[in-house]
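Q: Got a minute? One more chain.
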Amino acid sequence: MNENEFAAYSLRSLLSTSAAMMGMADIAIMKQTGHKTREMVDRYVQSGTRYNNNASCIFKNI
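A: Always. Here it is, folded:
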């Protein structure tokens, strides 16, 4: 992969999702990403965590 394969959205989403999964507060995520509202942070985090606690996770142990 090279830098042309990443968009600002992808990197911001990855950071937001990873930070949220590690228990970082929304306000800390917002300071880093520049988001003005928690709703926007939630949109980034939701899109990145849609496969957590999902029925498909039973396959990871097969």
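A: The chain has one domain: 8-61.
Q: Perfect, thanks.
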